[in-house]
Amino acid sequence: MIEVSNLTKTYPGVLAVDELSFKVEKGEIVGFLGPNGAGKSTTMRILTCFLAPTSGSARLSGFDVVEQSMDVRRRVGYLPESNALYTEMRVEEYLLFRARLRDIPSGDRRTRVGEVLDKVRLADRRRSIIAHLSKGLRQRVGLADAILHRPEIVILDEPTIGLDPTQVRDVRELIRGLGQSHTVLLSSHILSEVEKVCGRVLILNRGRLVESGTPDEIANRLMKTGRVRLEIRGDGRTIKEALEKVPGVLRILWSGKGDLQTYLVEPKDGLDLRPQLMRASAAGGWDVYELGFERLSLEEAFAILTEAPSKGPGA
Amino acid sequence: MKTFLALTRRELGVYFVSPMAYIILTALLAIAGGMFFIAMRNAAAQQLPVDFSQTLAVIVYIVVLTSPLVTMRLIAEEKNKGTLEIMLTAPISDAAFVLAKFAAAMVLLAYLLVLTLGYLVIISRYGLVDTGAVVCGYFGVFLVGAVIYSIGLFVSSLCGSQITAGVITLALALLLVIAQLIAGTLAEGSFCNEVLAYIDIPTNFGDFLRGVVDRTRLVYLTSVIAFFLFLTTRILESRRWR
What is the largest CA-CA distance in chain B? Predict the structure, then answer.
């Protein structure tokens, strides 16, 4: 359905998308995940033919985004991050206008608009002027527009951004419903968000694909890494210096209460350093009260993966 | 074609939802009406036929000077609000998008001009109307309007804010209106002098007022329109190769 290969997009002085390749099969709901500026929106704008790639190619339903832009546009429904609408129009009037642009036959337009309004539960607001609607309701108008022409592929850029928790749940339900008849690609910078609706997740960082798989797979892979928690009785500074000498130690966080010191040891490359740390403590002649392995939460693992500054406990 | 009409209709709708159309309409009818009143009184005092060309000349000035109000938001607003993204990801060609905006502005102009036909009805009650000159004059207003609107549309496509677009368009409109004045201060026959004299709107419009359609002028004005509409389309397309 969606085939992206070696997609690259540069803005003057910025490499927004870097040799990105991925595939989305028919009927999948795939989440694009990454911190702000990871290249999610840029990729989506290329897929929807708003921007053209600097190099590489993207095909949707077999049509190239550059060469067969009109064929792609006819088959894609898009909700941009800004969700900009013609706010002076009424909900139904706006959707009818969009239906006309989408070449939906005049006889079908009203029924089709009625259908999507029911689907996004806006039927009772059909006469409202869009400017008067709340953000959540506008988001639904945008969603209605994205599925109006029964596109094969629906691309949603941050569909739940700025919504309150109830609205977020509503939109999530809607997206899950879409998965039955459409291929969905959605983006988010919130992990838990994507985890709940997407069958597969693509994690982007600085324009590159850094991980992909089902949320569980990614969680398992990421959470192999963890850190060691140590409680040792003795002089805090001396112990810390000794532990830092252990090969494979990346960083040590130290907090002490009186005589008992607590250390959180972060290893390099997901190594398990428990034996080495135990030996180092024994060599120094300190009593170890606790030695444990702490798994990272998915959120923390994601933060490390995308190199956002991580805040561990005790830091 | 269907999409073009849908776009034009929505664009035209915006003029009447916002106060723009009414502001221009008021300015036009008030000032042109005053001019017409004076022309009628002079004609009555001198027992001469009414000279409608003065009123038409005033209409041209108003059309040109209010053009920023008509064109500034056309594309700049879509860029600013982000609606450009939903429009240009729908199956609409950039050219249809630009032409629909231009067509909406021209329909608005036609609507404004139709309202001024009332003056002619009044003249025809008391005297004769020089139909040839009047038709030619209106054609001239329409053509000059199209020129300045196509320039304004182009400026709007360059700007991210409609205020900037409006100010720049107004500056250009003023330049076109006083080009002859500036030309007069330059050495006769110099390049700048000739160019300014050529682009001057009152000069270009003068022939139409006298009921003369000069073919070179016609070609010149229509090519200016086509040129700027083409440039606007290219500017929109440029987001894809920049």
Answer: 65
| pLDDT level of residue A297 (50, 70, 90 thresholds) | low
Considering only alpha carbons, which residue of chain A is nearest residue B83?
A84
- Residue B76 contacts A where some CB pair is shorter than 8 Å: no
Report the C-alpha dihedral over residues B192, B194, B196, B201, rounded to 10 degrees. 180
User: A14 touching B, CB under 8 A?
Assistant: no
Q: Which helix (H) or strand (E) holds A2?
A: strand A2-11
ipTM of the complex: 0.87
Among the partner-chain residues A73, A80, A103, the one whose CB lies closest to the CB of B85 is A80
Burial class for B105, CB neighbours closer than 10 Å (0-12, 13-18, 19+): buried
In a 13 Å sphere around the CA of A220, the CA atoms on its Cβ side amount to: 4
Decide: helix, strand or coil at residue B191. Answer: helix
SS3 A19: strand
CB A80 within 8 A of CB A157: yes
Q: What is the mean pLDDT of residues B36-47?
A: 87
Tens digits of residue pLDDT in A85-131 = 999 999 999 999 999 999 899 899 999 999 999 988 889 999 999 99
Q: Among B55, B54, B80, which residue's Cα sits nearest to residue B166?
A: B80
Q: Is A88 on the interface with B (CB under 8 A)?
A: yes
Cα distance between the two ends of chain B: 29
* Residues forming beta bridges with residue A30, ordered by sequence position: A185, A200
How far apart are alpha carbons A224 and A229 in whole angstroms? Answer: 15
Residue of A nearest to B97 (CA): A101
Average pLDDT rounded to a whole number, residues B87-96: 92
Looking at per-residue pLDDT, the higher value among A189 and A48 belongs to A48
What confidence score (pLDDT) does residue B80 get? 92
Q: Specify whether the CB–CB gap between A70 and A82 falls below 8 A.
A: no
